[in-house]
Amino acid sequence: MADNKPLKVVHIISGDRWAGAEAQAYTLLKELDRHCDVHVILMNDGELADRLRTSGLKVSVIDEAKYNSFKILGLLISRLRRLQPHIVHTHRQKENILGSIANFVGARAISLRTVHGAPEFTASGRQKVQVLADRYCGKYLQKAVIAVSDELAAQLGALFPRRSIHTILNGIDPDAVRSGLTCPDFKQCHPDDRHIGIVGRVEPVKRPDIFLQMAKLLLQDAPQTSWRFHVFGDGSLLAAMKQMSHDLHIDAQVTFHGHRQDIRSCIDALDAVVMPSDHEGLPMTALEAVALGTPFFCHKVGGLTDLLARYPQYLIAENRPARYAEALRFTLDGQAAVQSSPQTLDADYLASTNGAKVSALYHQLTGRTA
Q1: 8-state DSSP, 162
Q2: For position 332, what pLDDT does the model report?
Q3: Where is the Glycosyltransferase subfamily 4-like N-terminal domain (predicted)?
């Protein structure tokens, strides 16, 4: 007999920054809130918290700037005891560990995690202990692992029981992405120039160095084109990349924007987005660029390979600056992008599909009828 009460679901998320994983969590939570009783526990009161509150979701914050991990664990146990959820869903390493342990002590709900991408660095020292703890919790305290691409699922198969791994692709709402677009300042100032951007955290795995070296090549090899290059995002390499831009003598053509609230309008205004990451899961920037019809050139890794399978000219197998420069010149100069760039997303990449699949997994794990 079906239980008419909605599933009570708790998501535990860092929320320390607004990046791809946070954007996907936000999109998913809005979809789940249509069908489930959703509660969100964040470790930081930032942009994710603000957006969730604005959307009417139930949000509480355990500020990791004020409390150490043991205090956070105690507060999580208390909140989960009070809420008594059916599902506890965690995101990222610290939240996986503390959330799954707190659930085991305080609620004994079904727990699972989403893995948004492969590790970005090799663990050392205390980090190795955290990695081992994270894997232990995933194996023994959580019932399922959601991977955002088949490639990532295959990698996770070496760490967790294969039967517990489920591939559920990230999704967006194309109408929401296209709504409220404005013309950003850089396009207003230079409407006839060619604008190329990289969007994301300025971190080693994202390879902003390749983007800047590509910019240097384009400025050298196609000087007749009025190029403008844009770096959107913050991160640990920001100062180094600004210095690199200066050393390459391209700083007059490169703008470092930092974090921008109007990033979708920026993507829409670009002539192309470049993503030379060493590895990726299924980045929201890619989905948004496709939905906006902006040519998207990327390293052939992760879920990007399937997303752009019908558009091989945008997939760069050899992650070198020259290969991106060649692809941009050939595709954009030939106007091929206008005719052949992806303009629509398959149903698998829609927020509604993502939410429905996650909800179905919740009901499967709890044995409840949807």
Answers
A1: G
A2: 82
A3: 20-175
* Euclidean distance between CA atoms 124 and 131, whole angstroms: 10
Distance CA 133, CA 205 (A): 23
10: which strand partners? 39, 88
For residue 60 the two structure tokens come to 């509480």
Is 147 in the same domain as 206? no
**For residue 1, is it within any domain?**
no
Shared domain check, 191 and 116: no
Q: What share of the chain has pLDDT > 90, as a percent?
A: 86
Residue type at position 203: E
Helix H, strand E, coil C: the string for 203-230 is: CHHHCHHHHHHHHHHHHHHCCCCCEEEE
**What average pLDDT does range 351-358 have in this prediction?**
96
Residue 246's CATH number: 3.40.50.2000
Number of alpha carbons in the 13 Å side-chain half-sphere of residue 190: 15
Distances (CA, A) of 256 to 16, 159, 177, 247, 281: 21, 38, 23, 15, 25
Q: What is the mean pLDDT of residues 67-77?
A: 97
pTM of the model: 0.89
Least confident range of 95-104, 110-119, 179-188, 205-214: 110-119
Q: Which two tokens stand for residue 189?
A: 């100032």
Confidence of residue 343 (pLDDT cuts 50, 70, 90): low
As a whole number of angstroms, the distance between CA 5 and CA 220 comes to: 64
The neighbour count for residue 3, using CB atoms within 10 Å, is: 12
